[in-house]
Amino acid sequence: MSKEVKIVDTPPPGHGGEGFFATNLESLIGMARANSLWPLPFATSCCGIEFMAMMNPTYDLARFGGERMVFSPRQADVMLVCGTIAKKLAPILKTVYSQMAEPRWVIAVGACAASGGIFDTYSVLQGVDKIIPVDVYVPGCPPRPEQILEGFMQVQALAKSEGLRRRDLPEYKALLESYNIK
After folding, report:
1. CA distance 80 to 39
2. Which of 50, 64, 84, 85 could pair with 112 in a Cys bridge, judged by C-beta atoms 3.0 to 4.6 Å apart?
């Protein structure tokens, strides 16, 4: 005697089973990217101290997926430019950015990284966006660790929502060419 089981709510064709949910590959990869970002700190002044405070147990960047601090650009996903960038240092920053693998994101931490801050002089770069593309700006002089965490979470949202092929689009390649980055 065979007993027939009837399913009231039918899953999508080809998908079923207990604990199984359907999604697309792009969403799954976005979620994985967003929760496993490896930050590369490029700290030159007081904003770097606030960034260091972000790693202590009070703020704990590890809770947000930034567990492993990387000091090699080839392994990093997110560059945090913290502090004043002198014009002599600009080519080095650009080289470090160029060595990062795709996809890569940049956070300009503090007023000096975003706009030169109070240093309106010939020797200070008036914003890192003059030499590399910036994804998130964190305001403040220096910004609090909570603000830097918010900037990191904004990059996570970008990583989660970014399409897999966005970096291959002509618009993105044109953006990099405008910065003279290959």
Report:
1. 7
2. 84
Q: What is the pLDDT along the chain (182 residues), one digit of tens a residue?
A: 566 666 556 655 555 556 556 677 888 888 888 888 999 999 988 888 888 888 888 888 888 888 888 899 999 999 999 999 999 999 999 999 999 988 999 999 999 999 998 898 999 999 999 999 999 999 998 899 999 999 999 999 999 988 888 888 899 889 989 998 87
Alpha-carbon distance values, 170 to 131, 167, 175 (Å): 20, 8, 9
Other CB atoms within a 10 A radius of the CB of residue 11 amount to 12
Global pTM value: 0.84
